[in-house]
Amino acid sequence: MSNQLKLPNIKQLQQHPFHVLTSSKLPLFMSLFAGSTALIFIAKLHDISGATSFSYSVIAAQILEPFFETSNLSYLSIDVLILYCLTFAVITMGAWSYNLIKESTKEGHHTLRVQLALKYGMLLFLVSEAMLFFPFF
Asked: pLDDT for 38-92, tens place per residue?
């Protein structure tokens, strides 16, 4: 006889038919990586290097300055910074997708009513996009 703890079904514990999301830090990380990538790309387009003072914006100075002062390097290639930010953004998207798949399949949070609501939401989105772009054609 095994002494394994049997977990109750999530559908039995859930008092409502909706999926309430748990709090996650992944959206915050994703927004930081996306914003940093945008600022670094804009700095590259304007040929702003680490030696140039970021007097254009206090926020840009606070975000970009540490990238150019890391590990006693006076200048770090902007191409490498963009590659790092994009890599971390892809890793964050992968982790976020894994959490979504885990919640929907293994943990069973997507009940039939939640699945129906997701399908109707996607259908309404597609219809609204079609109505938005219909006048252009």
From this structure: 888 887 787 766 545 445 566 666 666 666 655 444 455 677 888 888 999 999 9
Q: 111 with 19: CB under 8 angstroms? A: yes
| Dist CA 105 CA 102 (whole Å) | 5
| Domain around 129 | 109-137
Q: 6's torsion region: left (phi>0), alpha (psi -120 to 50) or beta?
A: beta
Q: Which of 92, 7, 96, 87 is nearest to 40 (CA)?
A: 87
Same domain (yes/no): 56, 88: yes
Residues 44 and 93 in one domain: yes
Give residue 122's pLDDT band: very low, low, confident or very high (50, 70, 90). Answer: very high
Residues 6 or more apart whose Cβ sits within 8 Å of residue 118: 110
Distance CA 79, CA 32 (A): 18
Does 12 fall in a domain?
Answer: no
